[in-house]
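Title: [Solved] Alpha/beta hydrolase 3D structure

Original question kept below for reference.
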Amino acid sequence: MKDLDTKYDIFNVFGEGKDLLICIHGYGQTYKVFSTLPNILKNTIILTINLPHHPFQNKLDNLDSQIYFTEIITFIEKLTSEKKIKNWSICGYSIGARIACFLYLRFPTKCKELHLIAPDGIGDNVIFPIATAKLIQPVFKLIMTNAVKVSKLISVAKFLNIISVKQERFIKQNLTNNLYSSRIAETWISISVANFSKTDLINKVKKTESKLLLFLGKYDAVILKKDLDNFILQLPKESIIYLEADHNRALFKYFEWLKTKKTSQDAS
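Solution (posted by the thread starter after getting help):
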């Protein structure tokens, strides 16, 4: 383990126990957002994985994006082998849910539960695949180097009703300067390597004994329920959990849910 622990700075392991929960945070966050989980989930190891370019530069960001995901898979295999953990659960928040789904499909028979919190990647989103297409990537990067121009484009998108007022506000909060604006492009392009099929995801969940739980903020104006309707229709009703939260608070309301509900990590 130490070879990967010291080689890269995207992995953090908290707690001790016989169970494992793998956590991927949302845009603009770091592993620290999960640091209280060992107090909530006893007898559980928490493995957190930083998104690409979070913080702004980590050692893996200098390498090919494919290596990022290869090393994640290697780390999980080494950790579970060392700790003798045969099955585990995965949670992903917002854009981190894309990586969570990707990892689930790499270990479908090993994953007990997949928790998707206010998830990006499973709804109807035409912007992400277009912006991260190989031919478009250079243009996307160039545009995102100028936060002022990007902000104007976002305003145009709102005017054309492509996005809502609250979505416009949320996006502009992450465009405070050129550095933050550029990080959006870098993060999106890196994550696009972890492409997955929503159909494959649903089919794997149905064929295995794993459980998919979808957590949606009732007041989420960023990840809209209407964009997830096609995905939701393929899940049992009991798999959808509504949280009293907007997008920014959804993850913390999920933590509260973990405190009060028995999951595969703390079931007796």
